[in-house]
């Protein structure tokens, strides 16, 4: 008796998925079953979702190099977190807050909110 020629199931699944990109595992399984190829939904899912192009990139295999990169990133984050604003920025912000409070006191809360929204719209139009 002659041996039955084996079929590369993963390659068959890839070919089917290339033609039917939106097909789910059950649909692929049913279509291949009609052709006489028995495949599991798990294999189809692995080929479709975990296959060659969908794998996460591996990190550096050298632990020392990886540690240096991580330490460098942490240092940069700490440096950004500890920055303080210059005194002039704080003064400018407090002056703006005083003007905002004066606007609310003169116009009332609802009207002040409408004026601020109108001003924001004007700035958006000017900036494009």
Q: Tell me the major beta sheet.
A: none
Find the count of extended strands (DSSP E, 2+ residues).
Answer: 0
The low-pLDDT segments are: none
Kindly report how far apart the N and C termini lie. 78 Å
Helix content: over 70%
Beta-sheet strand percentage? under 5%
Question: Which sequence of SSEs, written as H and E, runs from N to C?
Answer: HHHHHH
Kindly provide the radius of gyration, computed on alpha-carbon positions and rounded to a whole number of angstroms. 31 Å
The total tally of domains equals 2
Task: Explain what this protein looks like in three dimensions.
The protein has 6 helices and no strands. The chain is elongated. With 128 residues, it is mostly helical. It has helices spanning 9-19, 25-34, 41-49, 63-82, 87-107, 109-127. The longest helix has 21 residues, at 87-107. The protein has 2 domains: 9-54; 85-128.
């Amino acid at each position: 008796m002659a041996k039955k020629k084996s079929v590369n199931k993963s390659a068959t699944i890839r070919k089917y998925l290339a033609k039917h990109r939106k097909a789910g595992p059950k649909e692929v399984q049913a279509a291949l079953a009609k052709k006489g190829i028995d495949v599991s939904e798990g294999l189809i899912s692995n080929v479709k979702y975990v296959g060659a192009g969908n794998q996460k990139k591996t990190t550096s295999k050298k632990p020392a190099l990886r540690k240096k990169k991580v330490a460098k990133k942490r240092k940069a984050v700490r440096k950004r977190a500890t920055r303080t604003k210059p005194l002039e920025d704080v003064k400018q912000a407090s002056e703006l807050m005083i003007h905002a409070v004066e606007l609310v006191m003169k116009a009332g809360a609802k009207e002040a909110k409408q004026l601020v929204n109108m001003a924001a719209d004007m700035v958006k139009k000017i900036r494009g």
